[in-house]
Each structure stands twice: as structure tokens, then as C-alpha cells.
Amino acid sequence: MKPTILVIVGTVRQGRVGRKVADWYLNEASKAAPDMNFTLLDVAGLDLPVFHEATPPMMHQYSNVQEQVAKHIAAADGFIFVTGEYNHSVPGSLKNFLDYVNTEWRHKAAAYVGYGTIGGVRSIEHLVQIMTELRVASVRDHITISALWNAFDEQGNPKPEHIMGDITKQLTELKWWVKALQAARAASNNNEKEAS
Ligand SMILES: Cc1cc2nc3c(=O)[nH]c(=O)nc-3n(C[C@H](O)[C@H](O)[C@H](O)COP(=O)(O)O)c2cc1C
């Protein structure tokens, strides 16, 4: 079965660039890696309040809204984060989304697409740290889109001279991790079943 990869767009403001980048990436990724299924998860569509649950997500006493987020994450084998950069870091709406659930992320893999003045690289670096805490393995190869004021053509696609990185190379690496971790998760589930 083809692995399911969630393409997550984390900004939510009116007129955001994030959705444009995610739609472009989704199209390019489906051509570059037809052996994986790419699905968009738009954080704006979830309409999440600022996280205010009574118990930390690692205790797994989920509210209805947490269950809703958990269902998306649990169904995925890997993730592509499409991230802007707000004040040299991850946009608050994306961090808020990441704080909602915990174990559903575990032992999966992620790759990153950044956009901003210098390609959102500072946001990506912070995001990698956050995903390490959620026990997600991060792919080294990033895609970045720089100098946003002039980066898009009339169709809303980024111009080649503003894009750095190779999507095929990035997805080949992501697939390696996704397959390795799928096998490892299955083996550890089997071990747990045998022990019980
Ligand atoms: C609150 C805020 C802070 C920003 N800080 C940065 C920054 O630190 N570095 C940068 O390259 N761009 C920064 N920008 C510009 C964004 O890169 C640009 O607005 C981008 O389109 C934001 O993503 P979005 O359109 O998906 O919201 C900032 C924009 C906002 C709204």
C-alpha cells in the first residue's frame, strides 16, 4: 500500500501565502513521487482555539477537538510541513496545532518546505527541534522559496529562480525514512502483542 503523506499548511491569516505554496508543492510532489499518496491538511480549516485543555496531550485524555486532530495524524505515515517564518520562528498557529496531540506523531518522518525573506530557514530549524520532541525523524533536504515579494508568477506558482532544493531528492529521502519507520512500528507492535 502507498504511504500516506500529510502536507500540512500552518498559517491561517487572510491573504496568506502558505496555501499557495502548499497547493503548488502537492502538485509537484504527486508528479515526483507517484508511489506515495499526498493529502492536504490545512490548519486554517480546523479552526482550532488556542490550546487550553486541562491535561497535557501525553496523558491521552483527549477532548473531541483533540480526537479530531489525532485522527488526521494517526492516519498518516509521514508529513511535509509547509511553513512561513514569523519573527524568525514557527508561526504561532502551527505551534498551537502541534501542541494538540502527542503519541500519534511518534516514530514517523517529516520533510520541510519553507518560504520567507530567506526561505523560512529559521522557522524550519525551530520546527525540526519541536518535531524531535514529538519523536518525528526529520529529513535533511529542505525546499525553500525566498524573496516572496517577487517570488510568484501569474498562476500563483513560485518562479524557479526563487526555489532552492530538489523535490525528488527530498521525497526519495522521506520515503526511505517512512518505509523504515513503518517496518519498525509494525515490528514493535508485533513484539508488544507477543508479550501480552
Ligand atoms: C507576524 C509576522 C512576522 C514575520 N516575520 C518574518 C520573519 O521573521 N522572517 C521572514 O522572512 N519573514 C517574516 N514575515 C514575512 C512573511 O515571510 C510573509 O508575510 C509570509 O507571506 C508569511 O506567511 P503567510 O503568508 O503564509 O502568513 C513575517 C510576517 C508576519 C505576518
How would you describe this structure to a colleague?
By secondary structure, this protein is an alpha/beta fold. It has one domain: Rossmann fold, CATH 3.40.50. The chain has six helices and seven strands; from the N terminus they run E-H-E-H-H-E-H-E-H-E-E-E-H. The protein has helices at 18-32, 43-46, 64-74, 92-98, 121-133, 167-195; strands at 4-9, 37-42, 78-83, 108-116, 136-138, 143-146, 163-164. Strands 1, 2, 3, 4, 5, 6 and 7 form a seven-stranded mixed beta sheet that branches. Strand 3 (78-83), helix 4 (92-98) and strand 4 (108-116) form a beta-alpha-beta unit. The protein is globular. The two termini are 28 Å apart. The mean pLDDT is 97. Bound molecules: flavin mononucleotide. Flavin mononucleotide is lined by residues 11, 13, 16-18, 84-88, 116-118, 148.
Helix/strand layout:
Elements (H helix, E strand, L loop, with lengths): L3 E6 L8 H15 L4 E6 H4 L17 H11 L3 E6 L8 H7 L9 E9 L4 H13 L2 E3 L4 E4 L16 E2 L2 H29 L1
Bound molecules: flavin mononucleotide.
